[in-house]
Amino acid sequence: MHELLAPGASLERLATGATWSEGPVWLPDRSSVRWSDIPADRVLEWSATTGEMTEYARPADFTNGRTLDLAGRVVQCSHGRRRVERDVDGIVTGLCDRWQGRRLNSPNDVVVASDGAIWFTDPPYGILPGGREGYPAPPEYDGCYVFRLEESTGRLDAVITDMVHPNGLAFSPDERTLYVSDTGHLQIEGAPPGIRAYPVAEGRVGAGRPFVEVRPGASDGIRVDVDGRVWSSSEDSVQVFTPDGQRVLVIPVPERVGNLCFGGADGRDLFVAASTSLYRIRTTTTDAAARALG
Ligand code: MG
């Protein structure tokens, strides 16, 4: 047994019946995992208290990634509303939907830094022609950027503009590195696969570098643990990389993995949103952002 997994840990399927699962977050005050079933246009919740899966919202305008802000409130991405928004007890409020007067593509995943700034990716998956994860529409700006929103002032900066389809993102524990996965290679020949690492200082981002390639499939959602290891989704597993890019653990998952999050009463459960199902495995670590503990 690997040291990052609790003794005797095994992957268990907690719930199933979704179409394509994404955007899980652990909600300490509800002892539950909330996630998105994007093509079915609904938000699901699995309760650690009852062991039951329930539908939290439907329709949901195709929500995708979500996280908690500094006050423990849910911040989520909406393909359908093409915005980042906050959900407090089912009251959903938009935070930003435009950059320089133009609509965003379809925000995909989001993290909140310790200063409260909201960082999110904006690939086109919710507006693609014939797509089933939103409402097809032309993009209103040229590219797919990573943005930083300063909520107190409404200031929105495009902080990363050199990726093809930026998708999952997560900060290192000291927030001096932002990891961002790029799924562009799934659609566009020649696009670089894997995760890139960008230096961050005072809300500004420097030149990125390739961090790791993740095979098979792609790295979609990612999380970073307290020791700086990057936990990534892939086609057939969860894969864990040290800060210097060494792959140290592969957890096979019987379905394609979309995203993951840490949670549970002590933060050491890893929840995996994979295609039709939600899985859990017991680890020995926790998310770098202690908010997941509540
Ligand atoms: Mg994603």
What would you note in describing this structure?
- The structure is a single chain.
- The chain is mainly beta.
- The chain has a domain at about 20-215: 6 Propeller (Neuraminidase), CATH 2.120.10.30.
- About 0% of the residues lie in helices and about 45% in strands.
- The chain is globular, with a radius of gyration of 17 Å.
- The protein binds magnesium ion.
- Magnesium ion (MG) binds near residues 109 and 220.
Rg? 17 Å
Q: Which ligands, by name, code or SMILES, are bound?
A: magnesium ion
Runs with pLDDT <50, length 5+?
Answer: none
- Which architecture of the domain at 18-215 per CATH? 6 Propeller
CATH homolog superfamily of the domain at 18-215? TolB, C-terminal domain
Helix content: under 10%
Strand content: over 45%
CATH class of the domain at 18-215: Mainly Beta
Task: Fill in the keyword field for this structure.
294 residues, mainly beta, Neuraminidase, five-stranded antiparallel beta sheet, four-stranded antiparallel beta sheet, 27 strands, 0% helix, binds magnesium ion
Reconstruct the topology from this structure.
Elements: E1 12-16, E2 21-27, E3 32-37, E4 42-47, E5 53-57, E6 63-68, E7 74-78, E8 83-88, E9 91-96, E10 98-99, E11 102-103, E12 110-112, E13 118-121, E14 146-150, E15 155-160, E16 166-171, E17 177-182, E18 194-201, E19 204-205, E20 209-212, E21 222-224, E22 230-233, E23 237-241, E24 247-252, E25 259-263, E26 269-274, E27 277-282
Bound molecules: magnesium ion (MG).
